[in-house]
Specification:
- The chain has helices spanning 9-13, 44-57, 104-115, 135-141, 254-257, 260-275; strands spanning 31-37, 61-67, 80-81, 92-95, 120-124, 153-156, 162-165, 174-184, 198-208, 217-225, 230-240, 243-248.
- By secondary structure, the protein is of the alpha/beta class.
- The chain has a single domain (26-275), classed as Class I glutamine amidotransferase (GATase) domain (Rossmann fold, 3-Layer(aba) Sandwich), CATH 3.40.50.
- The strands form 2 sheets. Strands 3-2-1-4-5-12-11-10-8-9 form a 10-stranded mixed beta sheet, sandwiched between helices. Strands 6-7 form a two-stranded antiparallel sheet.
């Protein structure tokens, strides 16, 4: 698989003999990422290795995986650390998990570290389906796959105005499946800065009518849904105490995740959630308004 983003001169020199150097700039220090998987209604055994590879090939991250497996289940091919992991070793968690509740003490640790700004949090696609009975998780993710009675929904109208629909009104969460244009709504946010105003995402499930507390949500990008006929949030951040959280419903499978737009969004979201800054550039092969762009996927 080709490198997604340019490797820095420093990265090229790693491992070669050199005289002692001054302390590394924070932008040159790799960010410790933990992916949590192990249970899912989607193929986590395929998507986690792909996600790990994309993160590592950027040159910005080290990545470990912790799998909360069902009893008797076997781990995926990606090397794992025991579950529950020691969260103190990581700067950001990326969730590829949709399954049984995490142990209570681990939930408390996760919540406190995110709230205190010690741990960034990024989740994508069906990782928002779980933990309906965990109030702090619902607050962290803003909106998730829930029924209409669960919470509010947000969408953006044709005038670009954000609209809030109170809980109990409208439909339950659903999805369509097709390529769709993504419209950047916050062009100056570090994650989306430099992206085209509109870019075409590869065929993927488009979640609509997501529900939740929707508190301190900043919608960075939307996608027009032909079923609801409104612009649905597709990338957003959530303010949670001192924590930084990024949520995107994109990323149903490896094909959707290999969209350069999705991969770039996840890379920049992970860096921002961990550090509050983004140094990773927008690649030259980023999708255009009328053209998708795919990373090559290694065949096994």
């Amino acid at each position: 698989m080709k490198t997604l983003l340019p490797i820095t001169a420093l990265a090229l020199l790693l491992g070669t003999a050199a005289p002692p150097a001054p302390a590394a700039d924070p932008a040159d220090t790799k960010i410790a990422v933990l992916i949590i998987d192990g249970q899912h209604n989607h193929n986590w055994r395929a998507t986690t290795p792909f996600l790990k590879q994309v993160l590592e090939k950027s040159g910005r991250f080290t990545v470990e995986v912790s799998s909360n497996l069902k009893a008797g289940d076997k781990p995926g091919e990606t090397p794992t650390v025991p579950f529950p992991p020691d969260l103190g070793k990581y700067q950001v968690v990326v969730s590829n998990y949709n399954g049984a509740a995490w142990p209570e003490e681990f939930q408390k640790s996760f919540d406190s570290r995110v709230r205190e700004g010690k741990l960034g949090f990024v989740l994508f696609h069906a990782a928002n389906n779980c933990f309906a009975n965990w109030p702090e998780f619902n607050r962290m993710v803003g909106m998730a796959w829930r029924n209409a009675k669960f919470g509010d929904r947000l969408y953006v109208d044709e005038a670009g105005k954000e609209v809030r629909v109170p809980k109990g009104e409208g439909a339950n969460t659903g999805e369509t499946n097709h390529p769709y244009p993504v419209i950047v709504r916050q062009a100056e946010h570090p994650i989306t800065k430099g992206m085209p105003k509109e870019w075409l995402h590869a065929k993927d499930q488009l979640m609509h009518n997501l529900r939740g507390p929707a508190e301190e949500v900043q919608v960075l990008a939307t996608a027009y849904c032909p079923q609801t006929k409104v612009h649905e949030p597709i990338v957003w951040t959530v303010g949670y105490g001192k924590g930084r959280i990024v949520h995107t419903p994109m990323g149903h499978d490896v094909f959707a995740m290999s969209c350069v737009g999705f991969a770039t969004t996840v890379l920049r979201s992970t860096e921002w959630a961990a550090t509050g800054k983004v140094t990773l550039p927008i690649p030259e092969n980023f999708p255009a308004a009328d053209k998708t762009s795919q990373l090559p996927v290694e065949k096994k």
